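hey so u asked for the seq, here:
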Amino acid sequence: MCYTATVLFVLLGTLSVHGEAHESPKVSDIVEPSIAKNGLLSLDKSKCLSSNLYKNEKSLLKIKSEGDYLCAFYAFQANKVSEHPCRTTADADLRYGLFKKCVDEVNKSNSNPTNTYKLGVNAFCDMTEEDKKEKLGLQHPKEEGMLLGSRRQ
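ran it, structure tokens below
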């Protein structure tokens, strides 16, 4: 039943995420990093829109080549719900590097047999430290002696 509803939302052009309606991922929404724009690596972005490319442990372990990372990055960008979308090639370069590092860290952690937990790709995977602090409601200290996230009294 849930599967049918999800397919219906996709066919109608919207997705429901946490009770909010969002447009289905579009190829035109993806800003390419320079590795793709410079012709160093060419992919059909329309085949790289499914979140299944990065959403589970098995699919993450299949990400090995630069093309695999780029395709998963396209899917990640296309399925974001507005948090820090790439707007420029420079921004896409930065976030692509962060995404690749995140995928590698997730795979390394999940491959460790002594870990009693599993990690996954989430909204933080292409965020800078500043983005993460903003998302979590933390702030940079504005004055010497103030603690991170503290308020002036």
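Confidence is low (pLDDT under 50) at residues 1-22. Residues 7 and 145 are 53 Å apart (CA to CA).
lmk if thats what u needed
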